[in-house]
């Protein structure tokens, strides 16, 4: 039996589905639980200071996309999100042998699903983490957004430093 035909070699070449799925599920659960707490505890626009003015929880709704661009487009983004989710899973099936790639795509998938659930359920995405100093605020975001942003940073790092894809790579 050649090395290519051995069960170990075949298994080693498979994408990291367990890691990918576990991250995605974990992000969706954390995202939906935190959003549920915010929706149950705060009226839209109501806020609670966590670290003074630096970090606060604000119940916000975003019917558009990142940074509130293209408002009132939740339905269109829900449809687009379904396509994006399919592409993420397909892409992972092709390149998910790298540890960092599987982590990035799992975070991206979880974030996409978390925000899709909001768009279908509420017609907008629930955002609640508000950071900044005085009038200088970062955009308000949620767990799904944080996962998506982290994923993008990892994917950019992989593009800039391709050898990172070799860390923990299979087959």
Summarize the structure in words.
By secondary structure, the chain is of the alpha+beta class. β1 and β2 (55-62) form a beta hairpin. It starts with 6 loop residues before the first helix and ends in an 11-residue tail after the last helix. Helices cover 56% and strands 14% of the residues. The protein has helices at 7-12, 17-41, 74-95, 99-122, 143-160, and strands at residues 47-51, 55-62, 125-133, 136-137. It is globular and about 50 Å long. The chain has a 4-stranded antiparallel β-sheet.
Radius of gyration over alpha carbons?
Answer: 19 Å
Rounded mean pLDDT score: 85
Output the strand order for the largest sheet. 1-2-3-4
In whole angstroms, the N-to-C terminal distance is: 17 Å
**Strand residues, percent:** 5-15%
Structural class based on helices, strands and sheet pairing: alpha+beta
Helix content: 55-70%
Q: What are the salient characteristics of this protein?
A:
single chain; 171 residues; alpha+beta; four-stranded antiparallel β-sheet; disordered N terminus
Give a quick rundown of the structure.
Helices cover 56% and strands 14% of the residues. With 171 residues, the protein is of the alpha+beta class.
Secondary-structure topology with pairs:
Elements: H1 7-12, H2 17-41, E1 47-51, E2 55-62, H3 74-95, H4 99-122, E3 125-133, E4 136-137, H5 143-160
Antiparallel strand pairs: 1-2, 2-3, 3-4
């Amino acid at each position: 039996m050649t090395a290519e035909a051995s069960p170990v070699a075949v298994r080693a070449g498979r994408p990291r589905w367990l890691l990918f799925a576990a991250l995605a599920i974990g992000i969706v659960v954390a995202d939906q639980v935190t959003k549920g707490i915010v929706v149950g505890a705060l009226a839209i626009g109501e806020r609670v200071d966590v670290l003074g003015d630096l970090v606060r929880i604000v119940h916000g709704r975003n019917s558009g996309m990142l940074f509130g661009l293209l408002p009132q487009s939740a339905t269109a983004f829900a449809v687009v999100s379904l396509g994006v989710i399919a592409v993420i899973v397909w892409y992972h099936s092709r390149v998910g042998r790298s540890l960092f790639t599987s982590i990035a795509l799992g975070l991206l998938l979880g974030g996409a699903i978390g925000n899709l659930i909001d768009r279908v359920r509420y017609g907008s995405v629930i955002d609640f983490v508000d950071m900044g100093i005085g009038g200088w605020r970062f955009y308000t975001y949620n767990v799904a957004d944080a996962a998506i942003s982290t994923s993008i940073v990892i994917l950019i790092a992989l593009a800039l430093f391709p050898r990172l894809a070799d860390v923990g790579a299979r087959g």
